Write the structure tokens for this entry.
Amino acid sequence: MKHLGILAHSAEGSALCYLAACHEGSRQLGPHLHPDITTSVIAMGYSMPAWERHALQPIRATLAVTVQRLLAAGCDFFVCPDNTAHLALQAQGPALALPGLHIADVVAKAARDAGHRTLGVLGTRWTMEGPLYREALARQGLACRSPAHEDRAFVHRLIFEELCNGVLRDASRAECQRVIARLAESGCDAVVLGCTEIPLLIGPGDSPLPTLDSTRLLAARGVAVALGKAPFPSWRGGPVH
């Protein structure tokens, strides 16, 4: 088995990814079994000023240090359970110390395999307004739509003021359901939970549309790679083609 590294950025999402990977390992290998997993994180707060300036290079440099630490711990490859962080990871720069899975490509392939055609995307404003999912879904021949401006502002605030701090409120869940319903009205046939904390609040039974849980999809693919059941990644950061 390969040693899986989790390149963490936000705490709640990376913790959910770790648990999901352990549970997937047990499902495939038996009780209490899973591939070796190492998680490393440099606190996201250090990168928040750069995010607010949309300065991707210093964020990429910080994430690259964490990848180097995963290599030093013996990891063979990494997953990063933070959608927005991939905007920095896929920016131009030196090759990362380990190959990794690209979360948006994992989600896009799952959407294609499920027969979806037009995906709504929830996430931080950088994820919803940036090229991350638009490009990944286009590579699979799929379309991408973002919520309306006021809905994007709500989801962004929800992520940083509540979900990243472990706060789960029924009122916020209801508001997310309203946002997803509006995406359905605009023609979306599924919704990407494109922030790794959103699945803590919205499960499949909560959503007016079928959901693509980026956290659990990434964890499952990471375990499949570790077990030799999925291709070993070659992406070491930089643009994805």
Observations:
- The mean pLDDT is 97.
- The longest strand covers residues 4-8.
- Strands lie at 4-8, 37-41, 77-79, 118-122, 143-145, 190-193, 211-213.
- The chain has ten helices and seven strands.
